[in-house]
Fold:
Amino acid sequence: MQTTHQTALETKHAVLEQRIADETHRPLPDANLLASLKKQKLRLKEEIVSV
Structure:
């Protein structure tokens, strides 16, 4: 059963995934921003799995 909290986490995860894709496709991607976004995405994924 999917909870509202889990749905919210998955939505945030998808938003981060899109932001990573957008940044990756820029002419000069910001490596620090990408690293930060990927860490946030990983933390969310770990939280989703533990819910």
